């Protein structure tokens, strides 16, 4: 490159020097040939894009331009093969090389096509200019089938093998039920899906009564692996320190066999177990610390177990209300734990409670008791607001509040669980637990119902898929 630029500079300098000689006014004018593109980026479905070779002034003979094609784009896959040369007709200032783009169905990253002038033949009055290279970025117009939408897991009926996955597009126009079964061409594949977790491109479907975790590509739902050993009544999963952690209730008749399974995410195998108290349920992660709500499994419990993911050991426990059913981290790093209390049918009904835990020292910094017979659940958070479900209603509470809210924001509901994302509340209604349920969608700015979509049998959990990395 330095040699070419030196050459043109020397050539032009020579021309200027000679041109100053009054005795020789017939010296030829040396032109510079350059290459450019009118647009820097083109969608693969654009058809064709021109690369333009140009010179000033015009040359009085035909000029053959040879160019090299490089970059991450592949000839024959991303664009039709180029000849590597083009002729600039005598007297013309420009000539275009058309590049035909190939619109394939493969999801891929943006790729560059680089055209570099290498030689010029046909005139000594033309040299390669400074702009000897042009780059065109080719962008993909394809997407994975389950990007940018809502994933709903369905428990299905016990021992019926009819658990399933649904996908709802972000515009709520498209609903696809039986996603996993359709993609992988299987019929009965899961008995009671409890939850799902995500790590990069992978999704982990925790299937409680099948005693397994199905690993899929989260954007295509193609099966990747099945983890079906060392799990017993698996419930929920989280990712910490590069590993997976799955809560297990163990044998319902044994109060001392509950554990958190540690999964090697490269090999998709259980590599160890962390013994815990009765009934590990939902869990959240802050850095390398895992907080597990000990709901009690087939019995009752009232603690949060704190696990150090660096050592895979229990570092402490925090006492909260009876039957902690959900927990969330707020924007300041505090942990909020909602405990439903013992219900009346246990014969030992207790008060529900909302606890705020300072994660710096794992101590309870505030507690809020609910009234008798109130048993809330489904705590979710967005920004500085907490939302929970109680008595067929959704309540909102700011994290800075000193008391529980007295009135609900949305009433007349029948939610089995709910989630919040970008100002929208999503709740699942299991209906009669034998026929298809629904996904109910509300705008939290005015609490209006945006959509109600039929999904499948006993919708249980709601998750969100964005755009896959290219």
UniProtKB/TrEMBL annotation:
GO terms for cellular component: membrane. One of its GO terms (biological process) is cell communication. Residues 24-142 form the Calx-beta domain. It comes from the Bacteria. Keywords: Calcium, Repeat, Signal. PANTHER family: DIHYDRO-HEME D1 DEHYDROGENASE (PTHR47197:SF3), PROTEIN NIRF (PTHR47197). This is Calx-beta domain-containing protein.
